[in-house]
Amino acid sequence: MDRLPHHHVASGSYFVGGRQRLVLEAYLGTCVGVALYDRQANVGGLCHLLLPEPIGPAPRAESQKYASTAMPQFLRAMRDAGADDATLSAHIAGGALVGPLDDRDLALDIGGRTSEIVQTRLTDAGIAVAQIETGGFFTCRISLDLQTGECLIQPAGENRLERDARIEVPSPADVDAVIAKLQPIPQVALKIMRLIETEDFDIARLSDEIRKDQVISARTLSLCNSVMFGGRRKIDSLDHALVYLGINSFVKFIVVSCLNQFFDQSEHGYSLCKGGLYHHAVGCAIIAEKLARETDLVKPGLAYTAGLLHDIGKVVLDQYVSRSYPLFYRQLNDRREAFIDAERSILSTDHTEAGATLADLWELPDSLIMAIRHHHHPENAGASRDLTHVVYLADLLMSRFHSGLELERLSTSNLAARLQCLGLQMSDLPRIVDMIPIEVFAQAPELVLAAG
Ligand SMILES: [Fe+2]
Ligand SMILES: [Fe+2]
Q1: Crossing angle of helices 385-401/300-309, nearest 10°?
Q2: In a 10 Å sphere around its CB, with 0-12 CB exposed, 13-18 middle and 19+ buried, how is residue 5 labelled?
């Protein structure tokens, strides 16, 4: 089945098709996935839902992310493709809890309510439900083979378990050696990140430095053109880009274009798909920036950069996680460990330590080093508590609502207290999730940048 072409159905979208050599798949954390197949008409579809219903009036363009508005559209698309409600069969998966069981309140069980609405819509249409696997704590993968109608619901990452584990525990010297071998991110991006806290950019000098580096100049311009103009070359110089984007977006583009290559050095340890770590980083950056504006506790540019950098340590430890993958998988799924605890018990170190070492070497400001070091336990971040809480929440939202980018299981103990630190309550969560631009969940990270 895995050798067939795959189509990833992103959160807030659906896909309908006839019999063909194609497997539809979605990774589900708190999101709910509904697979429908009509074995007589040979028509199938997969719908990936984010929330039960809109908080206020939903913008038309985003109606596919709510169960209440997307289900009627999805069912209509199935019927238009030739499916008949009477011969359709449904599989429902996902809907994991956002927080721990004790913080759970029925009214806040986002996944549970999404799944309820899905079931009601299916019952109303008289569609038989063959399998429901919702609730629980883990990210799962739902797949539908459009050739055979076979639907599988399995824990995320299970399809990679065939590999043998070769545990290799890195010593501090090994970690240093990996860091020394990594292609570093360019000096100009580091310079920007050092200044991001004060926003004290000498833009003329910065432009001069970028111009000296032809690779970065070209990459920044191409990113800018692809995000803003769908790849048409409308912006042809750095000066033009600066005027067009404004200083804040301009520096973001430079940093993002430099980090893309850095994340590309990781192979397949933490990441569940190609480019997963980078996409997760850009998504966290966008959400962290939004949270910074919402809470007014941190500078948005600083929150963006911290979101982008929080998992850089994963690039360092990637090869070790990759070799011990089955062990990680078992500890996460069988023992229900948080990822960082599994890293410590298997590797004797973790990606927050490795990331902080790297950030220290890059001479990044203390606030960024603290956010990288403590993003899994933000209460330990001392003077950078606010920034680190923002990054923690952005990370949690990405891992629960855009699962499948990386192997990660975050601890949600103290979630209510951590939200409170940002002046938020559990009941604010659906509104915060709704605030995330839909592009964050799309396939191409470049679309995410446009959303920011
Ligand atoms: Fe992390
Ligand atoms: Fe993360």
Answers
A1: 60
A2: exposed
Ligand 1 centre distance from Cα of residue 155 (Å): 20
Q: Integer distance in angstroms from the first to the last C-alpha of the chain? A: 37
C-beta of residue 24 within 8 angstroms of C-beta of residue 146? yes
Q: 80-124 pLDDT, tens per residue? A: 999 999 999 999 999 887 666 665 555 568 888 899 999 999 999
d(CA 386, CA 430): 21
What is the pTM assigned to this prediction?
Answer: 0.85
Q: How many CA atoms lie within 13 A of 338 on its CB side?
A: 14
Cα separation of 343 and 349, whole Å? 6
- For the sheet containing 140-145, what is the strand order? 6-8, 23-28, 140-145, 151-155
Q: Give the span between the Cα atoms of 452 and 450, in whole angstroms.
A: 5
Ligand 1: centre distance to CA 287 (Å): 15
Tell me how far apart the alpha carbons of residues 193 and 301 are, in angstroms, rounded to a whole number.
Answer: 10
- DSSP characters for 426-447? GGGHHHHHHHS-GGGGSS-HHH
Distance (Å) from CA 109 to ligand 1 centroid: 24
pLDDT tens for residues 207-228? Answer: 787 887 777 888 788 878 877 7
Ligand nearest to the CA of 372: 1
Averages of pLDDT over runs of 10 residues in the chain (452 residues) are 77 94 91 96 96 76 88 97 97 82 63 93 96 82 95 82 69 85 83 81 78 80 78 78 81 84 79 79 92 94 93 91 82 79 90 94 93 96 96 92 75 87 91 86 57 47
Nearest to 175 by CA among 355, 398, 388, 403: 355
Both tokens of residue 274?
A: 């190609």
Q: Which residues surround ligand 2, an ion (CB under 5 A)?
A: 311, 395
Helices (DSSP H) in 143-195: which residue ranges? 172-181, 187-195
Q: How far apart are CA 40 and CA 238, in angstroms?
A: 58
* Cα 143 to ligand 2 centre (Å): 25
Residue 170, Cβ neighbours under 10 Å: how many? 18
Q: How remote is the CA of residue 149 from the centroid of ligand 1, in Å?
A: 37
